[in-house]
């Protein structure tokens, strides 16, 4: 799951801390005894110990490890490289009916940095404590699903299950820095087109309760910078249309809009991720002096930056009009710049969301497979941040975001990220149910 802002701030610190953590990262906990050496949990731990955190993710080792696992299970594996140094591993289990649209399971190999000094256990040690918690950066986001996909397929193959539809797993780079050299390039490639993907699953989020969470859309991120110009003047003079006054008017109007959205959340009528969020992230104005700012001058320019997140249910053109007419109007001598960080509509102009009702036949297959695995689902949600799923939804491929972690605190990007071994193992069973159901699903041609 990506959080652009945080990364840039943490990079230099984290790089330094990573260097410091090297000598520590080989210590293992006592509960990892010999008997564990070749088990689903030990394979998960081996993957967690590969340092794929930014700013210097070791993709080569991750690809080599995952490829060796896939080959050992008897799957096909090939490496694609759309940008040098940023490999993508594509694993395939051919179905008996290869002309049917395939199933794609996606997982990103990279993770955000970790500040070792703030962790109970070194973030790349994958220590398992006596109560079963496996501590590692990436344990929730999203190396768990990477291994669970493979382990579920390993089990299905040992039960002689034969899929009808072909199943692919994509291990992609760079999701945490926007996915532009990873999933975005992948979906545009001829290799992707040849996969003929009918349905895809991507990462979700942990659930503190005992219901699984499922995500049918991301919010699209925009960076908005508004700039005001105005007559400069002495600090003592009162006059109309200074740059600061023009900017402050906009900030007031935007604050009222922000409040109107937040009120809906506070009233319990929508989740945070279902409204348009508008948060100020910088204000830049004033004339610098050696001790701070010149205090008796009103500047001729002022600007402010906002992080805006747009749910698929909102109309981006209406927001654009609001910016032009109210937030940065030319009549107030204002200009603006929108930095779109990814797609906001699918290629036919529709909203970037996957239906979670009877209009999407995959939805009922998914739901049934979860309940057959003994799981309960909470109400489908929009993710507050972004994932690679947006690039596939842009191609109008139905994608559900799902990481089978119940009774687990949400620790992605946080210190002390961990996953309990029992939760990890139950997830494998859930994917066995999902993969067998999805790969056997036959669309009812007569109803189309
Ligand atoms: C916009 O700029 C023009 C030219 O400098 C000025 O005459 C006008 O008063 C300004 N208007 C506002 C609202 O700032
Ligand atoms: C499914 O949901 C969409 C969006 O809410 C709605 O437009 C559509 O009519 C629904 N279809 C069915 C079959 O319920
Ligand atoms: Zn993630």
UniProtKB/TrEMBL annotation:
InterPro entries: Aminoacylase-1_M20A, Bact_exopeptidase_dim_dom, N-acyl_aa_amidohydrolase, Peptidase_M20, Peptidase_M20_dimer. It comes from the Eukaryota. CDD domains: M20_AcylaseI_like (cd05646). The keyword Signal applies. Residues 1-29 form the signal peptide. Gene3D superfamilies: 1.10.150.900, 3.30.70.360, Zn peptidases (3.40.630.10). Residues 222-326 form the Peptidase M20 dimerisation domain. Pfam families: M20_dimer, Peptidase_M20. Keywords: Signal. NCBIfam families: Ac-peptdase-euk (TIGR01880). This is Peptidase M20 dimerisation domain-containing protein. It comes from Citrullus colocynthis.
